[in-house]
Amino acid sequence: MKKISTLFLLTISAISFGQVKDSVASKKVKTDLYVGFGAQVQDDLNINKNLRFKNLPEVQKVISEFVVGMNVFGEKFSGAGEFGFMYSNPEKNGSKNKYYAFNSRLKFHYNLINEEKIAFTSGINIASTASTLDVYSSSNTIDLNDLEPNNNSGHLNLRNQMYYAGPSLSVYLFRKSFPIQINAAYEIGFTRGRWKSDFGSVLNTVNESGKNRFVFGITLL
Questions:
Q1: Which of 25, 127, 144, 162 has the fewest CB atoms within 10 Å, i.e. the most exposed one?
Q2: Which residue range(s) make up the domain with 191?
Q3: Whether 165 contacts 190, CB under 8 Å
């Protein structure tokens, strides 16, 4: 979480610097706070091979995302810093997995088209994702009179951290009336993303190096 917070602060600093520079040049910089929703379509994760082997529910390839952030739009350049949240809870053969992830993302774009009612921009995304995966039996019971950990089983907890970068584009519509922004990106995973646990040592761990994702979203400015 510390890494995510640091990345977000660097994002705000970079955007603020760019805003000041652009403001001096054009005096037309516009800043908006926004909320949005979208989806991520990711490669089949390596952890799914292990889950599949035991006939357990897998991490879904398509997961919805809710985002909040700040958008900065200047005469020639634009960008954004945002936080996103993803969640899924599939079930299979009496077992469930609960997958949730927190994203922090930077966008640096050049404004290819900047008109009064519409704009089109393109550039790069840089993102960080902290994921947690719980795998457990649907019939788990916990006896509060016997809280000895060794007597309570049927629950696995794993986490990983991934960093991404890749090309992205944005389309701004209805800028004078009801402004919305449509975003699309292809983010390439460039770190190992080994699965770890806060509750024990992980043997035969796998990593998610090279696992990429397509990101699509709509934000309300």
A1: 144
A2: 2-139+150-220
A3: yes
Q: Report the number of distinct structural domains present in the chain.
A: 1
Q: What is the pLDDT along the chain (221 residues), one digit of tens a residue?
A: 444 444 444 444 444 444 444 444 445 889 999 999 999 999 999 999 999 999 999 999 999 999 999 999 999 999 999 999 999 999 998 999 999 999 999 999 999 999 989 999 999 999 999 999 999 988 888 888 888 888 877 889 999 999 999 999 999 999 888 999 999 999 999 999 999 999 889 999 999 998 999 999 999 98
CATH of the domain at 104: 2.40.160.20
